[in-house]
Amino acid sequence: MLTRRLFGKAAAMMAGTGGLPPRPLNAPAAGRVVSGVQPGVSQAIVLANKVIVFGTGGGVFVYSGTPGAGNPPISWMSSSTTDPYGNTLPSATGVAGAGTFEAGDMLITPSGQYVYSGTPGAGNLIYSVAPFNGSDPFGNTVFGGTTTYTALAPGGPYLAIQTFGGEIETFTSASASAAPGAWTSQMQLGFQSAGYGLSIVGPFVSVSSPLAPILIAVEPGTTVTPETWHAVTVPAGMTGNIRVMILPLSGMAVLDVNVVITSNLGAVTTYTGGTLPAPGYYPQGQREYPLAVDHNYTTVANAIPRVVIPISGDVLLDMPGFSSPGASCIVCGTVMYPVN
Known about the structure:
Strand order of the largest sheet: 4-5-6-7-10-11-12-13-14-15-16
Number of helices: 1
Shape: rod-shaped
Number of strands: 25
Low-confidence stretches: 204-214
Structural class: mainly beta
Oligomer: single chain
């Protein structure tokens, strides 16, 4: 039962604490509230204007899971080579694990590094560094190695210049998102073994030996095969050889004729040889060129020694009637003509 005497004692005790309940027995004295992080105190959220870390082994460490030995930080900034639990730090500042990191118009992902012309997106990738062929986060085609990309016109076509494995190769495509295999190789620049030095393979090819450069074209119908002489079938009644080759940097072909006539030496005759090896060797229009012979002949209309190359690609040799036929006649000449 609360008596008047007990009530008076309780009121006197509370009056000494400003009307608040008395402090529990053995409780520590109250301290001044300090902002920031206090030693030995864990807080879920820290708000601060400045963070200063100094001293041996100091740093900032972020963990996935419970910090400890065998669980290195996923993000860190430290002057030490290890975190507080002895886990090795590969660099002074770093981020471990997967993720996409953006800095202005550049992205870094586990698959590579990408730089864009403006806001990262489809169709505006201009530079990439990647270990293999693939695509960026927006579906743009990415070539392995170091590659630059250029839109040759708004919306395409696109040009890619790749450096990979000691070679430089250029590609074109109508779409920036076409698979790497769908891009067309236009040129390869690299080093050859087996006695060759620098090589360029493309619409025009430069193959350089260690001593002297030689310019050659690409064989028509191919993209990488160096051009060389191609034999054309010699007409019946002749022996010898006829050959053709595309010249580099010219859009021209050269036809070389060196034959011996062994029949019909006394009559005007058209000898029909073989067809040029591919349409890329055919002339833009019918071509006719004089040839040299080692016999005298009677000149009549359309009957001088000549080679005729119609647009069909056939090789014809028109021969006059020789005044002193003999057993054979040498016919030779080298002509150059524009190709398709």
